[in-house]
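We were asked to recover a plausible sequence for a given structure. The inputs and outputs are reproduced exactly as logged, with field labels preserved.

PROBLEM: sequence recovery
POSITIONS: 252
GIVEN STRUCTURE:
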């Protein structure tokens, strides 16, 4: 009798729980947590607390860096720094990298004064138009070489049955892109526009990525023939001979 009375009390208490709570308990017990639900929980956007925590960590790192700033180590050793600068090395000019230092400070000076002394007018009146003209001519040669296979898309045209390797394509693999870069650089110099020059650098990056995708498509279509073409014509935008002649390549 006592057990029956106790059971009735427990049942009556449970009946007062809200229906939604009972359903939630039933769902949580009957519905297992799936991997998808776990991934959703892991991929949930960071909360405001976590963002504040990251921000506080960044502030702490910045504070540590600034707290370690002490110029006494420089000011107390001025004589040694001057001696390092005046050190003649092994006596041979260029052994200490004098050309690199001269180029570095020369460019910094030009940036500060906003121009190139003596040859500044030459760059504006000759180099710019020459680059613009060479770029336009290279574009025309590339367009003429592709002929009916010309397309704005990096995927080879359906009617492009043979790989173009002669003419201007025998000098660079992407002459039209090369012409675009030369022409826009020439326009930037001619107009004296730093914004255009910066956008030309961005265009270079875009064309480089696009040409990589394009070459993947050409490799799929032509296979080893395109691999051999890449080995024979190493320059993507500029002739390999021109790149090898640049002082930073280290070519003898």
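RECOVERED SEQUENCE:
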């Amino acid at each position: 009798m006592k057990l029956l009375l106790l059971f009735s009390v427990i049942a009556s208490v449970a009946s007062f729980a809200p229906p939604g709570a009972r359903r939630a308990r039933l769902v949580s017990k009957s519905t297992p947590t799936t991997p998808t639900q776990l991934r959703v929980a892991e991929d949930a956007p960071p909360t405001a607390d976590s963002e504040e925590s990251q921000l506080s960590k960044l502030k702490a790192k910045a504070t540590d860096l600034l707290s370690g700033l002490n110029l006494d180590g420089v000011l107390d050793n001025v004589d040694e720094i001057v001696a390092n600068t005046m050190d003649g090395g092994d006596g041979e000019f260029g052994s200490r990298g004098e050309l690199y230092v001269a180029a570095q400070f020369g460019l910094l000076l030009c940036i500060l004064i906003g121009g190139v002394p003596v040859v500044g007018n030459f760059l504006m009146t000759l180099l710019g138009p020459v680059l613009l003209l060479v770029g336009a001519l290279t574009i025309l040669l590339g367009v003429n070489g592709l002929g009916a296979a010309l397309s704005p898309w990096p995927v080879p045209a359906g009617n492009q049955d043979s790989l173009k390797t002669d003419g201007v394509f025998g000098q660079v693999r992407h002459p039209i892109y090369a012409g675009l870069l030369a022409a826009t650089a020439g326009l930037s110099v001619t107009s004296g526009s730093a914004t255009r020059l910066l956008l030309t650098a961005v265009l270079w990056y875009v064309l480089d990525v696009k040409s990589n995708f394009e070459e993947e498509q050409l490799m799929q279509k032509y296979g080893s023939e395109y691999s051999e073409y890449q080995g024979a014509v190493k320059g993507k935008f500029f002739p390999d001979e021109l790149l090898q002649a640049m002082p930073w390549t280290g070519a003898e």
